[in-house]
Write a structure and sequence with these properties.
ClC, 18 helices, 69% helix, 454 residues, two-stranded parallel sheet, mainly alpha, Voltage-gated chloride channel, Clc chloride channel, membrane
Length: 454
């Protein structure tokens, strides 16, 4: 009896402890996210007063590059990747200087027309504040790591106004195929508290509802599988575009300032000769698609290119907002090609399905669909998200994500390693016999061809 009493008291104390810690983190992140969003809104309004402000993109990217390079190198790139790396390799230790530098650099990049997202900075700001709070309390490494994960969850929850999906994203994105259940409760608390704090401080979240939700039938089920495949392929292309951008800019033996000028000039050319819709956050295009408008057929690919250039050349920002744009455009294009009347619905499902594939977070993406568009979309979004997740395979927009499961017994890989360290050629050589012989042989030939070209 005494043992049971001790067990229950201990568990109750743990609940109280983590509810308290997570609530404080939620308040901190809610305030930090609000400061970032209001600073972004104000700065964007100032830029909008300047005709053709995107022509200043070379200067914008130079300023962002120098800020990060001089004051906080850990704030480089898209913030979520750095946070995942810190959780796995540094037990969540993040320099507090990252918070203001990431905030300012991202505001400058996005307001000036750089193609990036606003969630990465919020995740990094949230994680940085949580890490600072852990240092203040002198917590051990295990508790610090938990608090930092809470900060990630609260950052996503507050920036998109999806407290449950944000909390799930924070615990699902770290390891492919696994969740940190010991951090699930405090992540929910931090996400919900952060969401309400941001709302109390004046942040509004417009949640559009999909115009028409089709009934679940045999044909609609098939369509969602096809859409999931379509979005999975688009997610793969985006991951490759991002890696290609970083590779190409990395090979240039130029000073970072020169790279930033070159990248900014390329973005100016896109804005001038293609369309300005592919610069900045692209929220107007997302809203248009979710209201049933048909986007240009090249919207998916042009946003990939613009984002790859922005982040590859030194811009600061996240990747989830571009993923939303690309996914919305991919679903929009799918509906147009197959003459589907429900353009808004396919655009909405495409938005979350591409997130599920690119970030390997099908559960968080499915829940996000319900929080954004209503529970009626759940069956369709769930199927598309899972298919997209499987199609992407062992790739991720976050290379530091740890592989926790094998998506297919026919693709045997060693789990427990970052996805960025996996060798695609080894995957082709390990195709199981369940695949047709000509597929295995063709994969091996391709692998040998790559080695010869090297």
């Amino acid at each position: 009896m005494n043992r049971r009493i001790v067990e229950q008291v201990t568990l109750l104390a743990s609940v109280v402890k983590w509810a308290s810690y997570a609530s404080i983190v939620g308040v901190l992140v809610g305030g930090g996210t609000t400061a970032f969003l209001k600073a972004l809104s104000w700065t964007s309004a100032q830029y909008d007063k300047v005709p053709d402000y995107y022509l200043l993109l070379p200067v914008t990217l130079v300023v962002s590059t120098l800020l990060v390079r001089w004051f906080a190198p850990d704030a480089a790139g898209h913030g979520t990747e750095k946070v995942i790396e810190a959780v796995h390799q540094k037990m969540g230790r993040i320099p507090l200087a990252v918070v203001p530098v990431k905030l300012v650099a991202t505001v400058i990049t996005l307001a000036g027309g750089g193609s990036a997202g606003k969630e990465g900075p919020c995740a990094q700001i949230g994680a940085g504040l949580a890490s600072g709070f852990a240092s203040l309390l002198r917590l051990n490494d295990v508790d610090r790591r938990k608090l930092v994960i809470c900060g990630i969850s609260a950052g996503f929850a507050t920036v998109f106004g999806t407290p449950i999906a944000g909390a799930l994203f924070g615990v699902e994105v770290l390891v492919l195929g696994q969740m940190f259940y010991d951090v699930l409760f405090p992540s929910f608390v931090a996400g919900i508290v952060g969401f309400h704090v941001a709302g109390m401080l004046g942040v509004s979240y417009p949640h559009p509802a999909a115009k028409i939700i089709p009934a679940v039938t045999g044909w609609s089920f098939t369509e969602m599988i096809l859409l999931g495949i379509w979005c999975g392929i688009a997610a793969l292309l985006f991951i490759e575009f991002m890696q290609l951008g970083h590779r190409l800019f990395g090979r240039l033996s130029w000073h970072p300032v020169v790279k930033a000028i070159f990248g900014g000039a390329l973005l100016v050319l896109i804005g001038r000769f293609v369309s300005q819709r592919y610069l900045g956050l692209g929220l107007d295009s997302i809203d248009a698609a979710l209201n049933g408008q048909v986007l240009p057929f090249d919207a998916t690919f042009m946003k990939m290119i613009a984002t790859s250039i922005t982040l590859g050349s030194g811009g600061s920002g996240g990747v989830v907002t571009p993923i939303f744009f690309i996914g919305t455009a991919a679903g929009n294009l799918f509906a147009s090609l197959f003459h589907e009347p429900l353009v808004a619905t396919f655009s909405a499902i495409g938005m979350v399905a591409l997130l599920a594939g690119a970030a390997n977070t099908p559960i968080a993406a499915s829940v996000m669909a319900m929080e954004l568009f209503g529970a009626g979309i759940a069956p369709h979004a769930g199927v598309a998200c899972m298919v997209s997740f499987l199609i992407v395979g062992y790739r991720s927009i976050y290379p530091s994500q740890i592989l926790g499961i094998q998506k297919s017994t026919s693709l045997k890989v060693e789990t427990g390693r970052p996805l960025g360290q996996l060798n695609p050629e080894n995957l082709q050589d390990r195709l199981a016999i369940s695949f047709p012989a000509f597929v295995v042989k063709g994969a091996k030939v391709l692998g040998k061809g790559r080695k010869i070209r090297k």
